[in-house]
Every structure is written in structure tokens, then in C-alpha cells.
């Protein structure tokens, strides 16, 4: 149900700064969502001429897994909090999403560029950001009342990579950052400043019916006694490798997925844990089938992938399956802090002490104060986003997991399922404010709470000095 009120936003106004307004002065083409098509299998954007699938087979843009910024823009536009006066706005939402998605489509269609190669859409984004920095509105509070929404874990492409991260980590450090995993900003030396207004959100989940995006959230939850499968996991496991000079990055999460599938895949007739890669003897499973299998399963594994975040976390909640976080490294936990998702109540946590089969690094259990990972793919800081030491179960090897899952009391299972049901709507995305609250409601509330009237440290000192005079 659409509503039009967010308590934290009452009395505040939000301006949407579409970076396309600066395009003409730089001779940059205007961006359009019709320049990309969305893969029906995974919700990822591709260029229109890519042969992977036909344009007419593509998903509606609202179901792209990285379309969260679009949903937020639409919700703000249709709310009573939107303003057309940037100078008087309490909050400025930076809308770079169209060019960002075009860049992502180029990466998926053509491949990533080496550091010395030009990335077209990336090259377009940089001057647009610089024009934003030159506005008097940005300079008023050094961007402290601006909000950025970065829906993909890594902008690592071509000659713009270092310049992009310089902006992100230094120039934008006082702004609010909405991301899909902590590692997107943990790489910044200014992480502890950024973390004050950092929000970790879900990916936009898929849908069994593209004409009814909320259909899966509205499906009744299958009673525990009617579930035929004990444990389910289905995803790609083939690791990606980013080969840069003197810096080879292997996606550890995919290696872990493969090892887990090997350890658990034959651990019982009611265990369905497999990789979908044909190289590993797997095959693609349509989304509707995945949802059907998860909804009839008691436990669903939450594992990291190329990075710590994965869309499947949202879909596990959507299906009404009890999440099982297995690590290290651990998958991202969106809305664990800002959105009130009670993962301890809804999920199970298992820590494998013999993890050297998939990770060489020594894991840490809290974010270091003075040491930053060099890249979002560094897994040694993929830790739970909330403390779980009081509930995590220690196991030596992966195959010990099943004995624990098979002996959990029914009363505990009932409590977990009740918590999943109570929170699953928070993983949904709609292009308007809803009741009960969706991810968009929660994001807007957080924006209005921390994104306005928060001057950067230097400007706060200046204001205090002026007041003293």
C-alpha cells in the first residue's frame, strides 16, 4: 500500500541532483535507461547489442538488482518531501545512477578495462562529479548534507579507477553513503569518518512474475512440517580473477561456495546444495524455480560471492527460508543496524575454524582502526555487520554443519521463522513510500535523520568560531 509519510522526514525537503544537468557543458551524451537491457536471469545490465539475450526478453528496469537508486528517486519524486530548489533543500540526493548503470552495462558486455585503458561511461562520470563539487551548494557544507547511493560493490575499471576512489574516499567523505556492503567504503583511509553516515542496504530482489514485483513477498509461508528439503543453496561458484599488473584479485567467496558445495552436496537426500556452473557439472535454475525450492526448504545458506554482498540474502527472506550464515568470510547483512533487521532472531551463524581451503588471509573479527583492505575483494574483513559472538556456533569443518542443523529444537525453528516473516517486507523495493515499510521507507528515514544539518568538521569549527565572535 502506498502512503506518503516518513516520520523522520517531516519538515524537511530533498532535492534530487541529476548529474545529467552538467552533461552538455562537457560535451557528454545524455544518458537514458533505454541504453541498457536487464538480464532476465540475474538482473544485471547489458548493452543493447550484446548477444546474451534479446531486448524483448529483458526485465523491467525496476527489477534490475542494482536499481535501488532508481526506486529511491521515484519515491522521493512522488513524496511531499521533494523540492525543486536545491539552495533551500535540507538534503541533496546525488543521482548518478543512469551513467553508473551504463558503465556497469559496458563492463558486463565488453569486460573490465586495464588501468591504462579508457572506460567510456566512467570517463563521462568524472567531469560530472567535478561540476557538482564546484557548486556553491556543495561548498556550503563540504557535501555533508549530500547523499550518494552506490548499488554495486566495485567501480574498478580503466583509467578512472584511481580518480573515482579519490573522489569517493576523500572529497565525498562527509556525505552520507548508501552501499550494499561495508567493504565499498572500508577501503577508504577516511573510513571512520564515512562510517558515521554509512548505510548498508539490500540489492533489489528478483520476482517470479515480472509484472507483479511484490508477488513473492505476498506468498503465504509454508509450515515447517510441509517442507521437504533441509538445506538449500544454488548459485554460481566459478571465481572471477581480476588480473592487473602485480595485483591479481581472486574472488574468494566463489571458491568458498565451491568447497561448501563439495562438502555438503552429498550429505543427505534432503540436502540440495549445488553450484550452477557447467564447469562444475551444474546447470542454471530459473528464478521462479529457485524461489519455489527455497520456500519449501527449512534452511538456506548465505554465502559471499565475488564480494561480501549477494542478492540471494533478500530472496531467502522473501521465500520464508531460515538464513544460515556460514563463514569466514561472512556475507553482508543489509539493514542490520539502520533498518532494524534482527538477524540474531531470524538467522543461524556458524564459524568454520579450518577455512584455509578457500582463504589465505588471517581473518579479523572487528574492523581495524588503522589498517584498510586494498580492495573490496579482500575477504579478511568480511565479518558479520553486527556482533554475533554470543550466538555463533563454532565448527571445525563444513561437513559438521549438518549435525547441528538436524538437532535444532522445533521451538527454536518456530521462533526463527516468525522473525523471518516479520522482517521480510523490509527487503522489498517499490518506487514509492509503502506500508508496511519497505527498504525505501527505511532508506528515506535514515537519509532524513543523518543526511541533513550535519556540517563537515571543519565547517562546524568555523561556525562555532563565528558564533563566539
From TrEMBL:
Topological relation to the membrane, as annotated: Single-pass type II membrane protein
Compartments where found: Golgi apparatus membrane
UniProt main location, coarse: Golgi
InterPro entries: Exostosin, Exostosin_GT47
Signal peptide boundaries: none
Top-rank taxon: Eukaryota
Keywords: Golgi apparatus
Pfam families: Exostosin_GT47
Segments forming domain Exostosin GT47: 9-352
Similarity comment: Belongs to the glycosyltransferase 47 family.
PANTHER family to which the protein is assigned, alphabetical: EXOSTOSIN HEPARAN SULFATE GLYCOSYLTRANSFERASE -RELATED, EXOSTOSIN-LIKE 2
Name assigned to this protein: G13111 protein
